[in-house]
Amino acid sequence: MPGDGTQALGKGSCPPGPVPEGLIRIYSMRFCPYSHRTRLVLRAKGIRHEIININLRNKPEWYYTKHPFGQIPVLETSQCQLIYESVIACEYLDDAYPGRKLFPCDPYERARQKMLLELFCKVPQLTKECLIALRCRRDCTDLKIALRQEFCNLEKILDYQNTTFFGGDCISMIDYLLWPWFERLDVYGIADCVSHTPGLRLWVSAMKQDPTVCALLTDKGIFQGYLSLYFRNNPNAFDYGLC
Amino acid sequence: MSGVSARSLAKGSAAPGPVPEGLIRVYSMRFCPFAERTLLVLKAKGIRHEVININLKNKPEWFFKKNPAGLVPVLENSKGQLICESAITCEYLDEAYPGKKLLPGDPYEKACQKMVFELFSKVLTNKKTTFFGGNSVSMIDYLVWPWFERLEALELNECVDHTPKLKLWMAAMREDPAVSALLLDVKALKGFIDLYLQNSPEACDYGL
After folding, report:
1. N or C: which end of chain B has fewer CB within 10 A?
2. Where is the GST C-terminal domain (chain A) (predicted)?
C-alpha cells in the first residue's frame, strides 16, 4: 500500500475510479489532524487502504460528490459507501474490520472513552487559534491559558485513573483520537502548554513509543515547511516534502 | 417506573442513595429535550429505571458530583457508574441492555445514523455564525425557524445551558421583520393543538 506520499488532487483533476475490492479508500491531507486520526486507526488495525490527498485550497469539483462541504477525512468502500466525520470513520473501521478492537468491549468503558472525547472537544479549536495567532504575530496569552486549562482537565483524568493511557494500561481508541493534536504542539510552537501537566507529558512519551504512532509521525522540518507555505497561501503547501 | 412526574430536587435537598440492583437511574428534567432522548430509549427498550428530576434553575450541590457540568441527562447504575451526554447515554443503554437493538448492527448503517445525527447536532449547536447561513438572516434560517418557534411555544426553555447559541439565534430571529410579523401567538397555538387532537374541524380557525 502506498505511503501518504501522493500529490494532492485539485481542480481539474480526474475523479478517481471505484475503490478496488479488498481495499478501503481514505480522502485525506498529509497534515490534517482529523485525517490523521483515521489513518492511525487504519494502521493500528492493519487495514489495507489507499490514500487520495485533496488540495484543500483548490478542491476538485468531483470531491463534493464525496462530501457535501468538501471536508476530509472521508472513507469510501468498494461498494461506494461514504463515511465522514473523523470519529464516525474511526468507529466504523473498528466495527467493520476484524482483528484488534480499539474500542473496549464493555459498554460502560466505551461510554467513558466517548465522554473523554467530549472533555477534549475544545482542544482542536484552541490549538488552531494559537497557531494562527502566533503565525500572525498576535498575542496568544489568553488562548494558551485556556488551552492549559483544558490540559489540566485531561491531567486530572490520568491522575485519578493512575494509568499510562487514557483507556487504561494499553493504548486504545481514545488515545489515537487525541494524539494528532499533541503531536502538533511542538511544531505549532505551543509545547510549553504541557509544562504543568506531568501525566500528559508521560502519556506523550508513551504514545511516541507506540509502533502505529511512530509509523505515521511527520518530520518536524517538513511540517514547518508546510506551515510556512500554507500561511503564505501557497497552493503547493499540501505537497511540501514530496519528492 | 417511579419519578417521571415527581417534583424536582433543588439546592438543600438530600443526595439520593445508591441505585438499587436491577434498576438504572436517570437524572432528568420533565421539559428537557436532551433528557427526553434517554427516557425514550429507556422506554423503547423496556429498561427498568427510576427518574430523579433536577431543578435546573436551582441545582442541588450534590448533583455536581454526578456531572461536574451540572447538566441532565445523567445515568447512574447500581455499580455507581455515571454516564453523561444524551447521545452517549442512549448508545450505552442500547449496548448494555438486551432486547430490541435501536442502532443498526451493520457498521455502515450505524455510521449513517451517526452522520445524520452530526448534521442535526450542528443545527442545534450552530457554533460558527449568528445565523445558519452567515451573519445575516438568509433562506436556511427561514426554513428551520418554524420548528424552533413551535418548540419554544410549547415547552419551557429550561435547557438553555445546552444551547446558548441557539437561544441567541432565536432572539435574533425574533428581531427579523418577517419573523416578527408572523410570530405565532402561544395561546392560539395551544388552543389549535387542543382542538386538533380532538379532530375538531374548528381547529384550523381557532382564535378567529
Report:
1. C
2. 106-237
Of B77, B88, B110, the CB nearest to A114: B88
- pLDDT per position as a tens digit, B135-145: 888 787 888 88
Of B88, B111, B118, the CB nearest to A111: B88
pTM of the model: 0.85
Residues 6 or more apart whose CB falls under 8 angstroms from that of B182 comprise: none
Please answer yes or no on whether A88 and B85 come within 8 Å at the CB atom. Answer: no
Over 70: is that where the pLDDT of B159 sits? no
The CA distances from residue B193 to A129, A215, B197, B200, in Å, are 48, 61, 6, 10
| Closest residue in A to B76 (Cα–Cα) | A108
Residues A198, B12: Cα–Cα separation, whole Å: 38
Which chain B residues touch A96 with a CB distance below 8 Å? 107-108
Q: Give per-residue pLDDT as tens, A187-240.
A: 999 999 999 999 999 999 999 999 999 999 999 999 999 999 999 999 899 999
Contacts of A157 in chain B (CB under 8 A): none
